[in-house]
Amino acid sequence: MDATVDIATGPVGEATVRLLLHVALPGLTAWAAQDLLARAHHACPYTHISHDAVDVVLRAA
């Protein structure tokens, strides 16, 4: 997994935190890997805490 955290500009010019995760999941198809990431993100308790404060981008590598 490769993670990048940066400051992005929101829709009205405000500063927001963006988390970009590139995750390698050997043995899974691209579709299955992206689906797994989406499901894990949805179930993650940290997602529920920070859903409005952090823009999270998940990419299967």
Query: Rg from C-alpha positions?
Result: 13 Å
Across the major sheet, the strand order is 1-2-3
Globally, the shape reads elongated
Largest sheet: 3 strands, mixed
Percent helix: 25-40%
CATH level-3 fold name: GMP Synthetase, Chain A, domain 3
| Helix/sheet category | alpha+beta
Low-confidence stretches: none
What is the number of strand segments?
3
What's the CATH class, please? Alpha Beta
Number of domains: 1
Overview of the structural elements:
The model has no long low-confidence stretch (mean pLDDT 89). By secondary structure, the protein is of the alpha+beta class. The longest helix has 14 residues, at 30-43. The protein has a single domain (2-60), classed as K homology (KH) domain (GMP Synthetase, Chain A, domain 3, 2-Layer Sandwich). A hairpin with a 5-residue loop joins strand 1 (2-9) and strand 2. The protein has a 3-stranded mixed sheet. 33% of the residues lie in helices and 39% in strands. It is built from 2 helices and 3 strands; from the N terminus they run E-E-H-H-E. InterPro entries: KH_dom-like_a/b, OsmC/Ohrsf. This is Organic hydroperoxide resistance protein.
Topology overview:
Elements: E1 2-9, E2 15-23, H1 30-43, H2 45-50, E3 54-60
Parallel strand pairs: 2-3
Antiparallel strand pairs: 1-2
Descriptive labels:
alpha+beta; three-stranded mixed β-sheet; 61 residues; GMP Synthetase, Chain A, domain 3; 33% helix; elongated
Short description:
This protein has helices at 30-43, 45-50; strands at 2-9, 15-23, 54-60.
